[in-house]
Design goal:
two-stranded antiparallel sheet, 60% helix, single chain, 111 residues, Arc Repressor Mutant, subunit A
């Protein structure tokens, strides 16, 4: 999906060429078929090739994925997820990132 979002559309061969340590070409095709069956992708035919495109905008897909992660790993709590990211020893946040988080929290308090 990352390759398709980055390019806007891609064939199985283009995806396999782009991914580091990619699975076999047939495995890539199988994954694309599964993603299409789940409604995440659609395709158009370009001669003998299928060109795959996302059906959902990247931002909407990322929000949906994040909601799934929150439910699965953090009991649906955004605060627990943020704490896990911020409280880690290797989670060194820059001054810019801290300022951005502060701004987001202030805006959330206002609304």
């Amino acid at each position: 999906m990352d390759v398709i979002y980055a390019r806007g559309e891609a064939t199985a061969a283009e995806i396999a060429e782009t991914i580091t340590d990619a699975p076999s070409y047939s495995a890539v095709r199988a994954l694309l078929r599964i993603l299409e069956e789940k409604g995440a992708l659609t395709h158009r035919e370009d001669g003998p090739r299928y060109v795959f495109m996302p059906t959902v905008p990247h931002e909407k897909a990322s929000r949906s994925a994040l909601k799934g992660v929150l439910q699965t790993f953090f009991e649906g709590s955004l605060a627990n997820a943020v704490a896990a990211l911020v409280d880690t020893k290797d989670g060194n946040l820059s001054a810019e990132e801290l300022k951005r988080l502060e701004t987001i929290i202030q805006q959330a308090r206002k609304s």
